[in-house]
Amino acid sequence: MDAPSGYVALICPACGGGQLWIRDGLMNCRQCGHEVRAEGGVHALALGSAPPADTQAGDVARAFFPTEAARRSHFRDLQMIIEQVMGRRHLSDVLEIGATGGAWTAGLSASDRVRKLYTTETSAAALNHLVSIAAAPGTIILQSGAETLDFAPESLDMVVGRATLCQLGDPNAMLTRIRGWLKPGGAAIFLEPCLQGKIWAAFAMDLIRRFEEAGGPNDEAPASGGFLGRKPAAKKGLSPLAMMRLEGGTRQVLQGAQGIGRGEDRVFDISTLCGVGYEAGFAECFPIDQPQDEVTPLRRLKNTLEGLLGHEKGALERYAPVFEALDATFGALHETAPVAPMVYFVFRA
Predict the structure, then answer these.
(1) What does the pLDDT average to over 198-205?
(2) pLDDT tens, position by position, 336-349
(3) Predicted structure pTM score
(4) N or C: which end of the chain has fewer CB within 10 A?
(5) How far is residue 11's CA from residue 243's CA, in Å, rounded to a whole number?
(6) Coiled-coil regions in this chain (predicted)?
(7) Under 8 Å between Cβ of 135 and 42
(8) Rounded to an integer, what distance in angstroms lies between the CA atom of residue 70 and that of residue 294?
């Protein structure tokens, strides 16, 4: 469905003016006459770009979030965070940067609180998928990278992104630009890899790897006085491949803590990223751990380990006391330090 006719907050990519309008599904600039090409519900915002080629919808759905229930679950978490940060007020203009599989897009598009949603992507497969799940008339799907976006000053109520800042070469510059786009009282909310949460996953990975190298934990007391005993020879330990994955996962987190890597390899220290937000001019910068109503942060930590171990994830049962101890300490209250590998970072204008 075409976006409704009228003014949009986007800056014209040709002349830099703030006179982009939508009419009959076509976006054009009343200042210089530049037209932003549109095809199949996607506006090719970047100069010289072409609308995406057709992609089989079934293949796209399998490549990202295969079920509507999964999208609803992801959006339910975001909705709780939005209400905590923004209250129940209506939001005129919202930007989602890097929608990928539409984990949040469908929910934002259908929300009666959002009047106009700008959502961006660069992948042809992702863009075609977004068209199929976000058909509300107030949704404007843009083929554009984060670096090429530009909005009128103080035109947006909220900006959201899922694993967005970690993909950028310079998140500092992006936050500075977003601060200029937000209205007073607006907020940017990003779900990003967090060092304080991921370090617990790295701790658990390295602990399991070291125990497995020593023979693994044993239910019976050791006759020789060895630490937690050694696993009988009849019990099979983790495969060399699983051990390599644990070691690689630990190294990835530690390198990310040192500022090495980009994308999934990058992690943000809470105080460092909040400091960047204050330098960009935000009035408040703070983290919020993932909601615990349905899936606890500790469960998310175990999901990370299970994903690494694959069909050998049953080995985690031998380390149940470790997770029970974490649950009794860091997982006990909402106010404790983050345990989830991904944390919401909030930047309020």
Answers:
(1) 89
(2) 567 778 889 999 99
(3) 0.84
(4) N
(5) 51
(6) none
(7) no
(8) 13
pLDDT digits (tens, 9 = 90+) for 155-201: 999 999 999 998 888 899 999 999 999 999 999 999 999 888 888 88
Mean pLDDT across the chain? 83
b/e sequence 14-53, b meaning 16+ C-beta within 10 Å: eeeebbbebeeeebbbeeeebebebeebbbbbbeebebbe
**Alpha carbon separation from 215 to 115, 165, 185, 234, 312 (Å, rounded):** 59, 41, 56, 11, 16
Buried-state track 290-323, b at ≥16 Cβ within 10 A, e below 16 = bbbeeebbbbbbbebbeebbeebeebbebbeebb
Residue 56 three-state SS: coil
135's tokens: 């058909």
Q: How far apart are CA 293 and CA 296, in angstroms?
A: 7
Nearest to 123, CA basis, from 78, 59, 71, 177:
59
d(CA 340, CA 21): 42
- pLDDT tens track for 214-223: 887 765 544 4
Decide: 316 and 303 in contact? Cβ < 8 Å.
no
- Strands in 42-44's sheet, in edge-to-edge order, are 38-39, 42-44, 139-143, 114-121, 91-97, 156-162, 182-193, 342-348, 284-288
Residues belonging to the chain:
349
pLDDT in tens, 104-140: 999 999 999 999 999 999 888 888 889 888 878 889 9
User: Among the residues of the chain, which ranges form H helices?
Assistant: 57-63, 68-86, 105-110, 124-133, 171-181, 195-213, 240-257, 270-279, 297-309, 320-328
